[in-house]
Amino acid sequence: MPTLCIAGSYFHTEKQGGVETQIFYIGKAMQNIGWRVVYLCPTGGNLGWQFDDGAMAVYGFQQPSYGFQVEWAAIEKILQEISPDVVYQRGRSILQESGEVVRYCKRKKIPYVIGLSSDADTKRFHGITELPRAKQSFIKKAAIMPYGVWTDSKMRKTLHHADAIITQHKQQYELLPPSLSRKAVILPNLHPEITTEIIKPPELTVAWISNYRPLKRGELFLQLAQQCGDLQAKFIMVLGNARQQYTSELHRQAASIPNLQIFEKLSSQQIDELLKSAALLINTSEYEGFSNVFIESWLRQTPTLSISVDPAGILASEGIGICSGNFPQLLADLRWMIEHPTERQQMGARARNYAEANHGYQQNHYRIAEFFNSLLRHRLPV
Length: 382
Prior knowledge:
Layout: E1 3-7, H1 18-32, E2 36-42, E3 48-52, E4 56-61, H2 72-82, E5 86-90, H3 94-98, H4 100-108, E6 112-115, H5 126-130, H6 138-161, E7 164-167, H7 170-175, H8 178-181, E8 184-186, E9 205-209, H9 219-227, E10 234-238, H10 244-254, E11 260-263, H11 268-277, E12 280-283, H12 292-299, E13 304-306, H13 314-317, E14 321-323, H14 327-339, H15 341-359, H16 361-378
Parallel strand pairs: 1-2, 1-5, 2-4, 5-6, 6-7, 7-8, 9-10, 9-12, 10-11, 12-13, 13-14
Antiparallel strand pairs: 3-4
């Protein structure tokens, strides 16, 4: 039984986010074809083996504040105990920054795979440019600037040393330089299909769902709600796992907008019900990878209205939403979609068909399995 080690991200029961969701489905796909899957995860709970049923296991390690603080010898000892045949990491993480997992794979001559979690993973200076946005004092930002430089350098080295790179869509693939794209593949994010009929309620709901941080630009959603107060529509905003210093101002502004409800974290069941009932999903982010909420909403016949994000241009090409490009057009498009229920419902039906065919777990998990199986067959080089 070959072993896949998925290293560096939280297990989905401890933290719910896009990365955690997708590594769970990757692990599930590999278990289905007979692989053993071991998650090497930072944790706030028990250290060491948290769970192991032979087919799937979780090993928790104490996450330090910074990647350079990782105890390399301890991580190598854990990897030796896991004895993986292939190692996979997704996006930036403490273990990715430390470089210890890559070094272990090189010494053992086993394939190392990095999955991009965001378009920002392709940027040369992402860590540096994100630091000024943090709600911290200038002195603290200046003090950690070298860390931002270091994390950018470590990401470039990770991509360079990886034996394979998984990208989420065509545009993300094309952002890689030729030296990296030759070892990159495009594999879809996965979500379980919906087996029941979706019936939208007569009350029209416009939803915004994300783990909030400044690049999500939630203030734009508040402006949409305020400027659509004359329409029969309810606006619901879910902030997820977010720091209070990022959300306190949103809560203050929301108090004066009568057609808006704002929530912190909701359960996955509550999110599911919201997406089933919503008429539209709004995205105001500067950038994403391939948003899991997009796919979850499409599977529930909820089209997407986005100001900037349109992965591989599919909102327009598949007719499952609109990418507006700027705020005045976003507002105009929102009002049009609210006032044209037939066209909106047609978009929703196309969205479900597209998501099932291209991202549905049952129809696409074999693609993940075939990819990792090919790595095992060919070993190194990939």
